Every structure is written in C-alpha cells, then in structure tokens.
Amino acid sequence: MKRFSLILALVLTTSIIFAMPAIETPTGLYQATDANGRTVSLTSAPEKILVAAKAALMPAHALFLFPEAQRAEIGLSKTDQGLGDFFPLVWPKITVGGRVDQNASVEELMTKNSDLILLKATHFESLGKGLDQVSVPNFTLSLETWDEWKAELPQLGKLLGNEARANEILGLYEDRMKIIEERVSSLADDQKPTVLLLQGTLTDNTYSFKIAPDSWLQTWMVDLVGAKPVWKGSNKAANGWSTVSFEQIAAWNPEYIVTISYNSPSSEYRDAIYASSLYSDLTAVKNHAVLASPADLMNYIQPVASWVLGAQWLAKTLHPELFSDLDIEAQVRSFYHDFYSITDSAVLDELVGYYHASVESN
Amino acid sequence: MTDYQAQKRRQTLHLRLLFALTLLFALLSLFLGRYPKAGFTAPSLFFHDRLARTILINVRLPRIILALAAGAVLSASGFTFQLLFSNPLVEPGFLGVSQGAAFGAALMIVLGQSRVASVQLSAMVFGILGLIFSYFLAQRFRFGGSLLRLVLAGIAVSAFFSSGLGVIKLVAEPTKDLQDITFWMMGGLWNASWKSIIPTIIVTIGALLFLYLNRFTLNLLSVDEKSAFSLGLNPKRQRIILLVVATIGTTFTISVTGLIGWVGLITPHIARKTFGSEAKAALPASMIMGSFFLLLCDGLGRTALATEIPIGLLTSLFGAVVFVIILSSKSQGGKA
Questions:
Q1: In this complex, do A203 and B308 lie within 8 Å of one another by their Cβ atoms?
Q2: Domain extents for chain B?
Q3: How far separated are the first and last CA of chain B, in Å rounded?
Q4: B61-328, CATH topology level
Q5: DSSP 8-state assignment for residue A299
Q6: ipTM of this predicted complex?
Q7: What's the rounded mean pLDDT across residues A202-209?
Q8: For B308, which of A243, A263, A282 is closest by C-beta distance?
Q9: pLDDT of A207-248, one tens digit each?
Q10: SS3 helix, strand, coil % of chain A, rounded to 5?
Q11: Interface touch A247/B34, C-beta < 8 Å
C-alpha cells in the first residue's frame, strides 16, 4: 500500500508538472509572430542566437541579411549542402568544428543558453513545442515561397529590432523582380518557352529525376520569368520532390530542361542527360537546351536568399533578347554587396567565380 | 479417368490459362503509359514516332520484364517460406531479410556513392545476413521447437535492423538521402533498363527454376521432419538450401526494386486457395499470380499520375484488401 501511494504521488506530481502551461515571457520591445502563428517576445535584443536543427540554411540565410547578426554571437547547425559553406565568408568567426548537431535535442539546445533559437517551421512539433515548455524563446520560419519571405522577413526584423532593414531587403527583391516582370509582361502565350526543372539524384550509379510541387518557389520562379513550367499541375498534393519517369519527361518534351542538384554540381545531371541515348530524341537535347542551374556555394534555384539570382539567370537564359543588358555576374556581385553587405572584393570574386564555373559549360 | 486425374487435368488447363492471361496482360501493358498522353498508346504511333519506339523498347519492355520476374520470385519465395514454416503468415521479409536489406540500402545511401559497394550489393548482403543471424540466433535460443525459435529469432533480428534503419534516417540529409531512403523503402521499378535488369533476370530465373524443380521436395518438407527423413530426405539440409535460394532471389530482386511487400504473402495464399496446397501446381500458379499482381500494380503506378506512385504503396493497398477478403471468406482454409 505504501509503495502504491508512493507511485501514485509520483505519477500525479509528474502529470501536474507536464500539464502546467509554459511560463509566459513578459511582453517586451521585441515581439513578432512566427511561421506557426505564435507570438514570440523578447525583453531585449538577442545577443546569442542559435539556428538549429536540419534545414538551418534558410533561416540562417534570412538572419544574416540583418546587420544585427554580425554583432550577435551566432551558433549554427550544418549549413553546407555539399557545395561548400557560405556563412564563414560572411561571418569568419564561424568555424566548421563549432557547429551544433543537426539532431540536437531540446535538452542539448538548452545548454547553449541562447537568447533566441531560430528553427525551420517544420521543426515546430519536434523542437519548438519542447523549447516552449522550458521557456526558451524560439522563432520558426518557413521561407518556402516568395509570399512567405514577404510575410516572415519583417517579423524576423521586428524580433531583431530592425524592421526597416527587412523592408529594405524586400524592396531590393522587388526591384530585381520588377525588371523581370515588366519585360516578360509583353510576351504572348506562344512566346513563352516550355521549361522543365529536374532535380537529379544518383543512387547506385542510376540517375533519376524529380519535380517540385506546384506550391514551391521553384515552380513559381518559372512562371515569374515568362515561361511555362510543364510539370505544373502534376505534383499538387505532394509536399516534396516526386520522381518522374523518362516516359513522362518525353510526354512533356519541353523546350528547355534545367537540371538542379543541391549537393553536387548540377552539370553532372545535365551531362548524364546528354550522354544517355534514351534522351537523345528530346527537343531540349536536340536543341542543346539542357542546362545546369546556377550556383555558388548554394544552388540559386531554391528558397534561399539568392533565389532572386536564379530567377534573373533563368529570365536571361530563356529570353536573351529581353535581358541582353543584364549581366548576371554583376548581379551576383551586387546581390552579395547589397543583401549581405559584403565589400571584400576577394570574397565577391570568389562567389562570382563559383557562379561562373557552375554555368560556363552550358 | 479418376477424379484425381480429372482434377490434375483441370489444374494444368487453369495454369495454362493463367499463364496466357498474364502474357496477354504483359503485351497490353506495352501499350499503356504516359507517352504521348496518359493511357493507351495507339500501336501505329510506334511506326512513325522514334521517341515512342525508344520508350517501347528501352523503357516499357525492360520494366515489364522486371515486373514479371520480380513478381514471380517474390511470390515463389513467399510460397517456399510458408510451406517450410508451415505458417501461412510468413513472407520473404521474414527472418530479418527485408529489414536487413532496407538497412543495407539505407546505409549505403547515407555513406554516399564514393564507396566501392553499391546500394544493391549492400541490400543483398545485409538481407542474407539477416537470414544468417536469424538462423544462428535460433540455435542459441532455449525456448520452443526449432520453427518457433527461428520465428522468434527473425523477430529479434528484424527489430535490430529496424532500429539501425531508424538511426540512419535520423542522421540522413533531408534534402537528398532521406528522400532516397524513403522512396527505396516504398519500392519502384522506374530505374529498370536493359543494363540494370539483366543480372536480376539471370538470378531470378535461376532461383525460380531451382524452386520449381524442387517443388516435390517442398511438398515432402511441408510434412513433419520425421516423415520427410523416412522418405529419404535430409530435412535440415534441404530446408536450409531452399531457404537460402528463396532469400537470394528475394534480396537480389528487392535490391533493384526497393522493398515491395505483400506479394509474397498474398499471391501464395490465392494460389493455394485456387490450386490446392500441393506445390506441384500451387508453386507455378503462385509464380504466375505474383507476376500478374506486380504487373498490374506497376502499370497503375507508372500510368495513373505524372509522378511515379511507389509500387510498394500499391501492393500494400491491394494486398491488404485481398488479405481481408481471403480471411473473411467462408472457405478460407484452402483446398487440400
């Protein structure tokens, strides 16, 4: 009986502790709503910021658009997709060895004593809720579409105490997009080329290709630059890349094929298509219009900050006559200068060099 | 003519019909696909469209052949396992084979392509290791008869590989490796090409032939060990040989196709229900039904949507439905 009472008391105490609501952070100067609709408040500007968990690249990319990131003590989980790590270029204090484990638990994250933890919205259930339970301020970002960038960047700005910079960044994006939109707006429907973006994968020496969902930035980008994404409507329900057969690619038979890879040079997949006899009768192959997507230390055709460079490259590639004055190398240089305040010409040269290498054999 | 002879003649006729039907369906499948539009491709197109001819010869044909071979071997292996273990709920994934293969494939995907060993080889090696571990673990168990010990060892080995697979998925890169692992675990024949299917076809035909030629031994082994021994067999040795052949056939197939469940469970059931429990007719029937079932699922998987539907999803869906029907039917005991 004594033992039973002890167990009962233990169970009840544990239940009460877990049932208690998370301690409310007092409303402060720095308050914003995150991608999961939560209001996060900080009493002072965050001085120690941790970008945690998998897919940290996108929140980290957004964070470093703000000068506050340069002044704060930043911890990052893995941000190298396979082409190299961008962040040590922006913030040399970051070292590869100092990275936080991508799979770090709530308890492990707590040991970092961060003022703010940034997470991709997909980690809200696995980490965000747990961090709430222990009153560690955490803010989620989705950043998968341009609409989400527009909505979430000002919120991140609010939390960092620099909403003006967020609006400035959005303005910079809009300036670049406006040029594209204005020039392609005059295109008739039959002047819009058909395009297929294919993410390549190589498993056991076999190449296969995947298409992006309709709702993702990649699909929207092709629309934006005055082209027809042939796969649009085929991957509505999925929340990730879906494999397509050669037969389906042949049925679409687009004028342009753009290969994408986030962890290796995209040219590998372009070359695989050219080398395969199976693909030789496709229009894009015959017209030598299979192209590797541009990249520096990150591929531009993805929802990282440099996606706008991907859109500019795509616009110029598909409509050279409309964008003959658009120098992409100069755009890369000005992007990193304007968005990330990189002024060191050696660093800018390095990034431009990576870009050049990614597309020079197209 | 005796009743027995009449029954055998009927079975032979039914087997031939089933075989002809499967071949006809395979032929029809050549005209099903996404090019130039989803659905039926007019045969005339192949005469004047080079791309259509390429698709017919280099895409659809190898894929259909792989579906036929994979279906047959998965089903025959399931049949063999069920007969040897006298347990109708056993399939090739039993004894840690599938989980071992999944672990091996995932391990290689995460390690990358720079290694000498490939995903296929790793899947096969770990699948066979699953069987070996189960066998030796069963020797050490001190509980129950030999069959029960093997069943329990299989459960333990499967759990071991499952947990290893969980760890691999946890550390896998979400933008690439995790997607590859997930798709591999759901199966697919979209990678079929002449180059990739030839080794698989050779091994599966070898395994199928061996099992087919040993169908009488299978019958004898399905009775108790003493009776089998008195009929001149070395039950332990024969059992191991047949299990190894069935496992090699299965692992070699799933190393190319990814995990495809339910084929080895459902089709042997239907075969036994239709042709009786004797391996002489039920084993070839099981092979043909397995081919037909996988051909049907793959046809749907590659035609229904613009994106590939993983074949494992379809075999599980149809398999589960058929399973429920079989178990709910009045005469679910099968013919003797």
A1: no
A2: 61-328
A3: 20
A4: ABC transporter involved in vitamin B12 uptake, BtuC (1.10.3470)
A5: B
A6: 0.79
A7: 78
A8: A243
A9: 889 999 998 999 999 999 999 999 999 887 667 888 899 999
A10: 45, 15, 40
A11: yes
B136-157 per-position pLDDT tens digit: 898 888 877 777 788 788 889 9
pTM: 0.83
On chain A, the residues whose CB falls within 8 A of the CB of B38 are 251
Percent of chain A residues past pLDDT 90, beyond the cut = 71
Q: Which domains, from first to last, does chain A contain?
A: 23-163 (3.40.50.1980), 187-359 (3.40.50.1980)
* Shortest Cα–Cα distance, A90 to chain B (Å): 24
- Give how far A326 is from chain B: nearest CA, Å: 31
Cis preceding linkage at B36, omega within 30? yes
Q: Residue A338 CB: number of other CB atoms within 10 A?
A: 15
Q: What is the DSSP annotation of A324-335? A: TT--HHHHHHHH
The beta-strand segments (E) located in A22-72 are 30-33, 39-42, 48-51
Q: Do A245 and B190 touch (CB under 8 A)?
A: yes
Please state, in angstroms and rounded to a whole number, the distance separating the CA atoms of residues A334 and A173.
12
Q: Using a CB cutoff of 8 Å and minimum separation of 24, what contacts does A312-317 make?
A: A312/A176, A312/A180, A313/A359, A314/A195, A314/A221, A314/A222, A314/A225, A314/A227, A314/A258, A315/A180, A315/A183, A315/A184, A315/A224, A315/A225, A315/A226, A317/A256, A317/A291, A317/A362
φ/ψ region of A340 (left if φ > 0, alpha if ψ in -120 to 50, else beta) reads alpha
Number of CB pairs < 8 Å for A and B? 91
Chain A residues with CB under 8 Å of B109 CB are 203
Backbone angles phi, psi at A255, to 5 degrees: -75, -30
pLDDT interval class at A9 (50, 70, 90): low
pLDDT tens readout for residues B184-234: 788 889 888 888 888 889 999 999 999 999 998 888 887 776 777 777 778
Q: Are A294 and A221 in contact (CB under 8 A)?
A: no
**B191/B195 Cα distance (integer angstroms):** 10
